[in-house]
Amino acid sequence: MNHQFLNFIFSHGDLVQMILFVSLFFISWTIENIYGVFFNYRKWKHAFINAPFIITNLPGQLLLGVAFVGVIRWTSIHHFGLLYSFHIEKNHVLLFLTTFILLDFGEYIYHVFMHKTKTLWRFHLVHHSDKIVDISTTLREHPAENLIRLSFTLLWIFFTGAIFWAILLRQIIQVFTTMFAHINYRLPEKMDIIIGCIFITPNLHQVHHHYQMPYTNCNYGDVFSFWDRLLEHSKSYPARI
Length: 241
Hints:
Elements: H1 2-11, H2 13-35, H3 43-50, H4 53-78, H5 82-85, H6 92-116, H7 118-128, H8 143-160, H9 164-182, H10 189-196, H11 202-208, H12 226-230
Helix pairs in contact: 2-9, 4-8, 6-7, 6-8
């Protein structure tokens, strides 16, 4: 039964991600309605402003989706990439953890470039221009940034030699962590300190979305928060927001 379930997930990766995204979106929406930090805004209007980004980003995702399949197949056939040099293909747990860490570091590098390069920042600014950060902010991405992000991920997968099942599982986890980071909710302080030692929390990511420097240029982490501490990009806001 478990084997059949895993086969279904790997065979219908896009469908699984879509179902997970929609489910988590409405769960997060409900949490925001009950426990949200910000209530003094028109939530539905805000969501409808961000929703069209789904449509504008779809062509790029479909186009590069074909490229992803080709690159993953080529690196798998030729055993090309950093991961193959580790010779850990038979240890699935170690392979997945290593793949996850490498891909997360790639997302971190990409995010820093989007902030530090003026041309790229103009596209990324669309995401940061949302005055209220809530679950619908996860949809808010300029089509050009969507292409840049996917192209960078594609190049990173090529160099690392990440395999399909590990990438898919990582993306499924990333759906959850991305939505969790943007939710209009704050963890209790003690819980945030504990979880924030390893993972990006809504508290940490809200600092990243602050409109003033130096807060905007900090807390770049995608899933893991320790990259920011290692590279001295970690900050906490001096007052609760």
